[in-house]
Every structure is written in structure tokens, then in C-alpha cells.
Design goal:
The chain has eight helices and 13 strands. By secondary structure, the protein is α+β, with helices and mostly antiparallel strands. A five-stranded mixed sheet has the order 9-11-10-12-13. A four-stranded antiparallel sheet has the order 3-4-5-6.
Length: 249
């Protein structure tokens, strides 16, 4: 099952602090008799009666509540007629409170993509792996690809998902399809990233599915790197930094 995550009400925020709602019908579960919880429930009904919270519960912060809608969660507080919603940054942990939850959802979504539907570049004995959404018309994707050999030598497997930033049926989409359908996919991907022309090919391919998956989990650009524990690095990072993240430095 893909988790189709849809932005709601806060434009310009990234996946770490967006309000994310499941776009489907949801059943409102019973909440406690706590007046604060009831107040949040009434405010939600007034704002969006179609989408109902699954749960509303107290958080460690006074008058702030953790609201879940399907598989997603965000913090809510009511102040002077305003409903304030989003994530909370923990200065002691130096991270958002909901990071672990987002990571879990993203990992579960990516795990729905079979390994044989990815372009995998692996060392003989992989110790860890990363999943990378990549495009052929992306400068930093090209730089990352040039460093895959170093990552492999350190024991890191790279699993590529082919993500045409210009959308399905764009020229980059067609080139990625040609990459997938090539006899030597790795060489074709390398050639495409270097701007070389590829023989146009078509076959049964997962490129559109890769694109939809990226859209579902809130991808904003490439390369988009997901560690095997679900942690997201939403930009290019140097080899040393990535290896440090996965404990292979």
C-alpha cells in the first residue's frame, strides 16, 4: 500500500514539518472526556468536517495535542480563536518530534517497491543501503552518480528510483524509460547523466511508478536520499558525510 500524503493548509513547509493528511475517508475514534481534547475536536469539525481525526491525545506540552489522521500525525493547539498546527522542534534532541514517525511512513512506502523494480548498484557484500530518487537532468544527481563506486567500496548499496523531475511523458521521462529498457542499465544511466544520446527504447518499466511514489511521499527535488532506516536526506551530500550517516566511514 502506498501512503499518498497530501499537503493540507500550510504551503511552503517540507516533509519534516508539513501537516500531512491521508486523502481518504476516515472513521473518527472516540476520545477522552478531557475538555481540551473535545475543544480540539470541535475546532477540527468546524474547519474540515469531511476529514476527521483518528485520535486526539495529550502531548508532553501543556495545551498542545497530538492529532493523528490515518497513519499521519501533527501537533495542534488552540489560541484566541486560532488553530495552530504543525510539528515541534525539540532543542535538546536537535530534531523534530515527529521525525521518527515520518521516517517510518516513508520507509514503509518505499518498501512497497520491489527490489527488482529498482536499479541496484551493489558491492559484493553490502553492509547498508540507501534508496535514491535520481534524474538524468540533475547536476547533483550526476555528481552523486560519479561517487557511487566509492560508496560501494565502503559497503554501501545504492538503490536507484528513476524520477523524472519534469513529470511523466517529459523528455527526461522518456530517457529514463530508455535507461530502464537498455541491455546495460548502469551504462545507459551513466551515459544519460553525461548528456550522451541513448537509443530510444520502450518496454514494461516502473518509471511512472517511481514518479508516483516520489510524489506520494513529498519529494521536492533530486537527488533525494532515503537511508535504510527511513531517514531522509533531501539533497546531495558528499561521500564522507553519507558514509558517516550510515556508520561506514
Amino acid at each position: 500500500m502506498l501512503y499518498k500524503l497530501v499537503r493540507y493548509g500550510l504551503a511552503g513547509l517540507n516533509v519534516n514539518n508539513s501537516i500531512l493528511l491521508i486523502a481518504c475517508s476516515l472513521i473518527c475514534l472516540s476520545v477522552s472526556a478531557d475538555e481540551g481534547i473535545q475543544e480540539i475536536e470541535r475546532a477540527f469539525h468546524s474547519m474540515t468536517p469531511i476529514i476527521k481525526p483518528s485520535t486526539i491525545e495529550k502531548s508532553p506540552i501543556k495545551d498542545v495535542y497530538l492529532v493523528t489522521v490515518g497513519e499521519n500525525a501533527f501537533y495542534v493547539t488552540k489560541r484566541d480563536g486560532f488553530l495552530i498546527m504543525g510539528n515541534i522542534y525539540d532543542l535538546d534532541r536537535n530534531d523534530y518530534l515527529l521525525t521518527e514517525r515520518w521516517n517510518k511512513l516513508i520507509k514503509e512506502a518505499i518498501d512497497t517497491m520491489p527490489l527488482n523494480k529498482m536499479l541496484v548498484i551493489s558491492p559484493a557484500k553490502a553492509k547498508r543501503f540507501v534508496t535514491v530518487f535520481t534524474d538524468v537532468d540533475c547536476v547533483f544527481c550526476r555528481r552523486f552518480h560519479e561517487e557511487v563506486g566509492q560508496l560501494n567500496r565502503a559497503g554501501l548499496e545504492v538503490r536507484y528510483l528513476l524520477y523524472p523531475g519534469a513529470g511523466v511523458q517529459s523528455e527526461s521521462y522518456k530517457r529514463l524509460v530508455s535507461v530502464w529498457c537498455a541491455d546495460d542499465q548502469l551504462q545507459a544511466l551513466t551515459d544519460a547523466k553525461q548528456g550522451k544520446s541513448l537509443p530510444s527504447k520502450n518496454c514494461d518499466n516502473p518509471v511512472a511508478a517511481h514518479f508516483r511514489l516520489g510524489q506520494d511521499i513529498g519529494l521536492k527535488g533530486t537527488p533525494w536520499i532515503v537511508l535504510d532506516n527511513g531517514k531522509v536526506i533531501s539533497h546531495y551530500v558528499a561521500v564522507s558525510e553519507l558514509l558517516e550517516e550510515v556508520g561506514l566511514n
